[in-house]
Amino acid sequence: MWGVIYVLPWLIGFVLFFFVPLLASLRYSMSTIQANAEGIAIQFTGFANYIQALTVNTSFNRALIESITDVLVNVPLIVIFSLFLAVILNQKFRGRAVARSIFFLPVILASGVIMSLESTSLIEAVNQNGTGGSAFGTLELEGLMLNAGVSEWIVTYLSGAVDRIYQIVSQSGVQILIFLAGIQTISPQLYEASKMEGATGYEAFWKITFPMVSPLIFVNAIYTIIDSFANNAMTKLIRDTGFVKFDFGLSSAMAWVYFVAIAIILVIVSIIFSKRVFYQD
Amino acid sequence: MTTSRLLSLEQWKSWLWSIIRFVLITGLSFVILFPIFQKISTSIKAKGDLYSAVVVWIPQNFSIDNFKQAIRVMDYWVTLFNTFALSATTTLLTTASCALAGYGFARLKFKGSNWLFGGVILTILVPPTTILIPVYLNLKSFDLMGLMTLFSGKPVNLLNTYWPFILTAVTANSLKAGLYIFIFRQFFRGIPKEVEEAAYVDGAGISRTFTRIMLPNAIPSMVTVMLFSFVWQWNDSFYTTTYLTSSKVMSTQLSSLPYNLAQQVTDGAASQADPFYLSMIQDTGILLAILPLIIIYLFVQRYFVESVERTGIVG
């Protein structure tokens, strides 16, 4: 029974600040809510709010699709990039400690307000144009790759990634951390044995590191998805509908559609991964 | 002869890799640090240097005028104190409550505890926006199952106080608390059972074992959780802009900074504020907001990086 006592604080909070609100939000999403002197009056309207969000509201569908494509595009990049960096940061070289602390800096700096203010900063925009030419560089590379016969879709994807490098780097802090911690739990004997057998570093990565961290690839993919869904155009729209237009019902309906969309994506990702992840035990 | 040539080929390969690695790491570090350097450079420029063609990085006329303006507009020292107090309080409370819950879920299994842990996972998965409005309305007229009405006659309004943060922190439901519970649970599961059994044999009760044996062992994961929760609370604009509309906290001040700047920084009576100048002060404001975090990070980063490796996030 001690277990109940230890979990109790969380359980109270879970019921008060999560579970009851969750049900309430589901109820709100199917009603119109009027605030008056006595409090709020809730009137059941069925799926009217959902219909309004999906068919009447002008920005909802666009924001939803935009945020979903954004996530689908960015998640693979972030996961691969952070795994690659974790492998590099795990190698021994001079200045490793400094490099590590720089790469974890985005964990601290990448947050909603700062990022959104930065995107509006005039000075930064001007300076980036000044020092730029980066667009030119990728253009040239694009041509080179297209000539070499790489499919156009992949080329635009990759060059887009290069242009968004800051966004990707700044979203990978926690993922690098998790991968790095995971790589360090792999026993060194495995690498020694493979070296004796004549495996190169490249082979060792694919045959040892990759399978051993594959559960973490799953964890990181999930984390990245949740993280990128937590703050984007969609959440802003939901908040504005609720707190600027005071249409609580519509806002809740939007939030539920959004949640269901995320849940579907998470389920698909879990299905994809569950077949491929390697567990040691 | 052949072996030495082979060796030298190996040597070349490893050199080449070192060079590539060096270029990659330096380049990416530059990408990360560039905005910070840029802000520092902008913040110490005098207003005239903005339009000077010779000035790119190092200003011609150093000036701390930007800092003075930003500090005035943001009411920096009050804001700093408020933010620090808020973040420190929630960090300590969250860490304590999450450690308790994590231990409960890891070791003190009871009937249905796995189901409840499913609830923890659910709190991680559901976007906070989904439950924002009910929580907001709930806090606006907070009535703990009729208790408040019983004592004071009417429900209390908790908005614009620190109570929402304290209450959610005590009950392990604050910002990203599900993640912290998960980290603690993974960590406690990684500690060998023998350690606890030895403590029980020596006559320690469950609470004594927890505070004397398990918690001291959990320091690495506690450092990780504390750092994350402090930083995320500091930067959080989602909850603070909802719960604390008029209170002076760093993230609310930052998000209203562009507006406040346009209001307060106008040179002379009629002239319109120069958008570049405003942007300059805004950058200085951002720098001032993250500066305390960077300073804290400089002190704890070594410990932080080491501790994450031992945290057992990766159980």
Automatic annotation (TrEMBL), chain A:
Name used for this protein in its record: ABC-type sugar transport system, permease component
Transmembrane regions: 6-26, 33-51, 71-90, 97-117, 165-183, 204-226, 253-273
NAD among keywords: no
Coiled coil spans: none
Localization annotation: Cell membrane
InterPro entries for this protein: MetI-like, MetI-like_sf, UgpAE/MalFG_permease
PANTHER family on file: BINDING-PROTEIN-DEPENDENT TRANSPORT SYSTEMS INNER MEMBRANE COMPONENT, BLL4140 PROTEIN
Upper lineage: Bacteria, Bacillati, Bacillota, Bacilli, Bacillales
GO terms classed as biological process: transmembrane transport
Membrane-protein topology: Multi-pass membrane protein
Protein family per UniProt: Belongs to the binding-protein-dependent transport system permease family.
Organism for this UniProt entry: Paenibacillus polysaccharolyticus
A Pfam family hit: BPD_transp_1
GO terms under cellular component: plasma membrane
Lineage: superkingdom: Bacteria
PROSITE patterns reported in the protein's UniProt record: ABC_TM1
Keywords: Cell membrane, Membrane, Sugar transport, Transmembrane, Transmembrane helix, Transport
